[in-house]
Amino acid sequence: MSDLHQENKAFLIRATRNIFSGLLDILYPRHCFACDKSLHEEKNSYICEDCREKIKETEARRCARCGFELGPGIASSGKGCPECENTSLRFEKSFFVSDNKGPLKNLIHQFKYHKHVCLMKPLGGLLTGLLQQGIIPEIDVVVPVPLHWKKKQERGFNQSELIAKKICKKLSLPISVNNLRRVKNTLSQTRLSRLQRQKNVNGAFKVKKPDMFFEKNVLLVDDVLTTGITASECARNLKNAGAKEVYLLALARSRL
Ligand SMILES: [Zn+2]
Ligand SMILES: [Zn+2]
Predict the structure, then answer these.
(1) Cα 221 to ligand 2 centre (Å)
(2) Which terminus of the chain is less hemmed in, N or C, by CB atoms within 10 Å?
């Protein structure tokens, strides 16, 4: 084959590829899922650079247990802070990326309610990043906060489970998805007061095989932490099954 012929062939392949990706951009325009900015220049990405930076911004001083932002002069002890010390949360500590605001809030909303399940990748990546910083103690098993089967069927997926699976795959951690179960199809906690929330989740969870959690350090994974009452109820069940310590990992911390 002559050089000229080969050059022509390479040119044709390149041109076809460019036309094809141009067509794809028209058919499936790629935009940042958080701010809608075009992502033409940024390959293999779901979030633009600006949003990525905003999510990474450092956060205020917080209560180690519930994540409440501590104002000047407010202290947090091992028992918690003024926000959580009377609710006796049953998990040891909570970890999350940031407050539920800005680009992170938009991403979680797109993921959960607009069913863009592809976002489990960048969201899982944010949590994997937290775990890789080594701030969370040794973990034996990862447990996503379960949904009742009816709710899972309605939504089509459990957002916490998808994210937990991403983390476990990336960090080679064992996951348990069906042993802690939500046996009560509870109301959404969103519009409930603290007291109503507690009543709503009482008896909502059950552990099928307690042996699986015996003497284990468990990392509970949830999407958004608000009062911590749901996660605490999960932690209570895990500890009744013999779990040693329970840590909570969530994407964001929201205010009641
Ligand atoms: Zn953006
Ligand atoms: Zn607190």
Answers:
(1) 18
(2) N
HSE-up of 219 (CA within 13 Å, CB side)?
Answer: 27
pTM for the model? 0.85
Q: How far is the CA of 64 from the centre of ligand 2 (A)?
A: 7
Structural domain contains residue 106: yes
CATH of the domain at 46: 3.40.50
Cα-to-centroid distance, 143 and ligand 1 (Å): 30
pLDDT (tens digit per residue) in 35-46? 999 887 777 689
Cα four-point dihedral sign 50, 55, 56, 61: positive
Find the 73 Cα to ligand 1 centroid distance in Å.
Answer: 35
Give the pLDDT mean for 129-136.
88
Nearest ligand (C-alpha, residue 62): 2
| Residue 19 falls inside a structural domain | no
* Domain span including residue 145: 28-57+89-253
What does the alpha-carbon distance between residue 256 and residue 249 come to, in Å, rounded to a whole number? 18
Q: What is the pLDDT of residues 52-74, one digit of tens each?
A: 999 987 667 888 889 888 878 77
Protein residues within 5 Å, CB atom, of ion ligand 2: 63, 65-66, 68, 80-81, 83-84
66 alpha carbon to ligand 2 midpoint, in Å?
A: 4
